C-alpha cells in the first residue's frame, strides 16, 4: 500500500464486502484507478460505505457532479484529493483530465492522444437510473465516448446489479438506496433469470459488437490504438471490471470471448494498471 504521506493523493472508492480490494466493482472508481496507475501516481485508497458517500462528499466540500432524472443530486465516487495542489476532483472523467494536465510527463504517457472515437449508443428505452448529461469541456471527443459507453453498459446493468458484492454491515441500506434510485418495489426486482436474461445478454453482445468494431482498426494490440493505451480503453476497462465482479463466472467467461475475444484481451491488457493501493 502506498505510504500515507502529506504528498500522497487520497482516492475515495466504494467499500464492498471483504476482501474489499478484490471486490471493488464500481465502474467509475475503476476508471479513475486505472488512470492513476497509468500515470504512476502515488495514492492511497479510502474505502467509503455506500450509505456514507453523500456525507463524505459534503464533508470534503465536493458537490454532486450529476443529478438523477428527477432532479435530485447524485452523490457518488470517486473523489481524488491532491495535497500538492490542494485540489479536490469528484468525477472520474475530470480526474483523468486533471492527472493529464497536472502531471503530463508521468507514467505511461498521454491519457488523451488524438483518435477517432465514433461510437454512439441510443438506448431503446429509458435507462434504469437516468442521470443528467455531463457538461462538455476539455477532450470533448473522449467525453462523448464516455457518455455513450456508459449508456451502453448501463442499459444492461440489470444483468449485474443483483450480484453486487455489498459490504455486509451496510448491505440492506445499500440495497434500499438502489431500489429508491431505480424506482422499483424491492431488491428482488433486480433479479433476472431464464429467457428474459438470455434476451438481455443477446442485446448486450450486439451492443458490444458495435463498440468492438473500433478495436479492429488496429489489431496490433489489445487497445484502440494497438499497443498504446489511452483513457478510452480505461473507460471500457472500468465497466469490464464491474462485469468481472458481478456476473456469474460462466457468464463473465462467455462475455470475455464475445466478438473474437476483443474484450477479454482488453481486460488482460489493462492488468498492469489494476493495482489497488
Structure description:
- By secondary structure, the protein is of the alpha+beta class.
- It has one domain: Glutaredoxin, CATH 3.40.30.10.
- It contains 10 helices and 6 strands; from the N terminus they run E-H-H-E-H-E-E-E-E-H-H-H-H-H-H-H.
- The strands form 2 sheets. It has a 4-stranded mixed sheet with strand order 2-1-5-6, sandwiched between helices. A two-stranded antiparallel ribbon has the order 3-4.
- Helix 7 (194-212) packs across helix 10.
- The N and C termini lie close together (5 Å).
- Mean pLDDT is 92; it is low at 1-5.
- This is GST N-terminal domain-containing protein.
- It comes from Penicillium alfredii.
- It holds the Pfam family GST_C_7.
- Residues 16-107 form the GST N-terminal domain.
Label this structure with key terms.
277 residues, alpha+beta, Glutaredoxin, two-stranded antiparallel sheet, 10 helices, globular, disordered N terminus
The helix-and-strand class reads alpha+beta
CATH homologous superfamily classification? Glutaredoxin
When the domains are counted, the total is: 1
**Beginning-to-end CA distance, first to last residue:** 5 Å
Helical residues, percent:
40-55%
Please work out how many helical segments DSSP would assign: 10
Series of secondary-structure elements, N-terminal to C-terminal: EHHEHEEEEHHHHHHH
Give a quick summary of the entry.
It comes from Penicillium alfredii. The protein is of the alpha+beta class.
